[in-house]
Amino acid sequence: MIRLRGVSLVYPNGVRALDNVSLEIEKGSFVFLIGSSGMGKSSVLRLMYRERTPTDGEVIVDGMRVDTMKRSKIPYLRRNVGVVFQDFKLLADKTVWENVAFALRVTGAKSKDVMRQVPRSLELVGLSHKSRMFPHELAGGEQQRTAIARALVNNPKILLCDEPTGNLDPATTSEIMELLLRINLKGTTIIVATHNQGVVDRMRRRVVRLENGRIVSDEERGYYFLGLGQTSVLSG
Amino acid sequence: MQITAIATVAVTIFMLGSFLYARETLGKLSSGMLSRIEISVFLNDRVEDKQGRAMSEVIGADPRVSAVTYVPRTEGLRQLQDRLRGQIDTSLLTSNPLPNAIRVRVKNPDAVPAVAQSIGKMRDVANVEYDQATVAKLLRLTETIAKLGLIMICVLIFAAAVIISNTIRLTVFARRREIAIMQLVGATNSYVRAPFLAEGFVAGTLGALVAIAILAIVQAELLPKIMTTLSFIPFSTARVDEVRLTFELLGAGAIVGVFGAWISVSRYLRV
């Protein structure tokens, strides 16, 4: 479903965020991207939704070459790849309902599709009863759930999460991770970049660790820190 | 911010409108004067009336000619006497010194020199005259106005577009969060552009309307005064097509608005 082949990314200021990274992620999997705070994890995600292009290598998402994709096709990629951020990125002057509906409306969806899909998305994240509230009236966890509902409203095959629980307390963090698991069980491929040790250790999913722009380990049922699990595979 | 954009367009379109109005008036005046210029064709002494009239018909058949008048020497003399009454006693003349003549008017003032030349080639034409100096001057004036006009229009529209573009850029910048999210959830560039282009269109059209209103007031108040001061100029022959001018200015405003907005948004989208 998602493939990075020999990808390097050097930012204009000279920082080498990724160095010859190769990664393959199957459809329906749940993957953690971990590593010290820096640009590596976020960069991988940015390449996947074409926020950046690699300096080297290929990025393939759902069978399409994303790094060489024509600019005019990018919106269609983005409709198939939902993204969730640490700061939620909601529109403050729109209600929960309108924030979610926004993602549909920009694709030119008809009113009846909007009326059908928005409630479904809100129900999935458990916010149907708060659809008329504004972001500033919601708790952090609820805002993130709104962001997730929006990311999912177009039924994307992939959901990318960049530090989704970074601004949330531990209890809310668990709720959100539980929600992401539920979504993953329905078939959506999910990639979570995080530095939350607790979350990673509790969920025991595939853990890809990045250090200095390279993948230093890739474990199927990994822990946050190396050595606690099975033998790690070094690459690069 | 909107007010700035509208005011800018208004000022620019006002200048454009004034210029276009003046140009059209001058153009029509000079055309009017040119079309009244007569070409005088003097025929050889031996030409009789019958031949003269035949030649008139030939000249009249030229599609460029709007009116032909055959002036036999007797008539010519009578007109001369009328003109010189009180100045010279023409009864002192023993014979008629005037030749038979043909007076020609053309449809398109530009054609005066050319028509005069082709008539000059006809047999038995002694001399062809027209007020060359005036014709040349008027033609040159019209040409200069046309060239100047084009330059002025381009400069004005460009300036207005730049200023609108700057104004809209402020709006784009203010809404950059929203735009970023739009692009994140998969909006196409056209979708992102649309509201800004609409804003530019509205600002441009409103500005043009303001300008048109002011122009109308100026025309109603100022023009009668100008016309009385310069009463020797036949303004009545130079009626400007106000309806067409209004639509042209509205169109210019709309184009300036949309164009300026397009520039702004595109620069942002590319970044």
Straight-line distance between termini of chain B? 23 Å
* CATH C-level class of one domain in chain A: Alpha Beta
| Secondary-structure content class of chain A | alpha/beta
Full CATH superfamily name of one domain in chain A = P-loop containing nucleotide triphosphate hydrolases
Cα shape of chain A:
globular
Give, in spatial order, the strands making up the sheet with the most strands of chain B. 2-3-1-4
Radius of gyration from the alpha-carbon trace of chain A, in angstroms: 18 Å
Count of distinct strands of chain B: 4
Any idea what the shape of chain B is? Answer: elongated
How would you sum up the major sheet of chain B? 4 strands, antiparallel
The overall pLDDT of chain B, averaged over residues, is 82
Q: Trace the largest sheet of chain A across and list its strands.
A: 6-7-8-3-9-10
Following the backbone from N to C, one meets helices and strands of chain A in this order, namely EEEHEEHEHHHEHEHEE
Q: Biggest interface, and residues per chain?
A: A-B, 19 and 13 residues
Number of strands of chain A: 10
Order of SSEs of chain B, N→C?
Answer: HEHEHEHEHHHH
Q: Could you say what the CATH architecture of one domain in chain A is?
A: 3-Layer(aba) Sandwich
Layout of strands and helices, then pairs:
The complex is a heterodimer of chains A (236) and B (271).
Chain A: E1 2-10, E2 16-25, E3 30-35, H1 40-48, E4 56-61, E5 64-65, H2 74-80, E6 81-85, H3 96-105, H4 111-125, H5 140-152, E7 158-162, H6 170-185, E8 189-193, H7 197-203, E9 206-211, E10 214-219
Chain B: H1 2-35, E1 39-43, H2 49-61, E2 65-71, H3 73-84, E3 101-106, H4 112-120, E4 125-129, H5 132-174, H6 176-184, H7 189-229, H8 242-270
Antiparallel strand pairs in B: 1-3, 1-4, 2-3
Helix pairs in contact in B: 1-5, 1-7, 1-8, 5-7, 5-8, 7-8
Description:
The complex is a heterodimer of chains A (236) and B (271). Chain A is α/β, with parallel strands linked by helices and 236 residues long. Chain A has 7 helices and 10 strands. In chain A, 41% of the residues are buried. The model of chain A has no long low-confidence stretch (mean pLDDT 89). With 271 residues, chain B is an alpha+beta fold. Chain B has 2 domains: 167 residues, no CATH class; 93 residues, Alpha-Beta Plaits (2-Layer Sandwich), CATH 3.30.70. In chain B, 26% of the residues are buried. The chains are: A alpha/beta (236), B alpha+beta (271).
